[in-house]
Write a structure and sequence with these properties.
About 65% of the residues lie in helices and about 10% in strands. It is mainly alpha-helical. It is globular and about 45 Å long.
Length: about 130
């Protein structure tokens, strides 16, 4: 059985941005180890949400660029999460819409569980009513 490495947001950010000489190299080694089959990486949806928030708010990246990078990464077989399908759907919705990532997440989860989504957010409510 391969070792599973659970990564934190700072590892993912340094890997995606490659902006720090030492830390980005360490992050790259973690991902390379998984890519060549030595390990697997568990990427939690909370870490993805925090990463999206940091990249949009602090680093001022565009949602399409963020979603594209994360969709490609999370699609890799060595990235594991039992809710991977929901994460990918959420990122796709986030990339094309104007909802916050967390709103996309709760919408996608509600669909997955076939639940009714209750919200006071007008944009989220409008989307939710379209699909019911």
């Amino acid at each position: 059985m391969k070792e599973i490495i659970c990564i934190d947001t700072n590892i993912l950010i340094r890997f995606l941005l490659a902006d720090h000489p030492q830390l980005s190299q360490k992050a790259k080694k973690i991902f390379l180890s998984a890519e060549i089959g030595k390990t697997k990486i568990y990427l939690d949806e909370v870490i993805i949400a925090e990463t999206v928030w940091l990249l949009t708010s602090f680093y001022k990246q565009k949602r399409g660029e963020i979603a594209s990078q994360l969709l490609e990464l999370i699609s890799q077989p060595w990235i594991i999460n039992p809710r991977k399908k929901i994460i990918l759907e959420c990122l796709s919705l986030f990339s094309t819409g104007n909802l916050a990532f967390i709103d996309c997440w709760v919408y996608c989860v509600s669909k997955e569980i076939s639940g009714k989504l209750e919200t006071f957010d007008k944009k989220l409510e409008k989307l939710s009513k379209k699909t019911t």
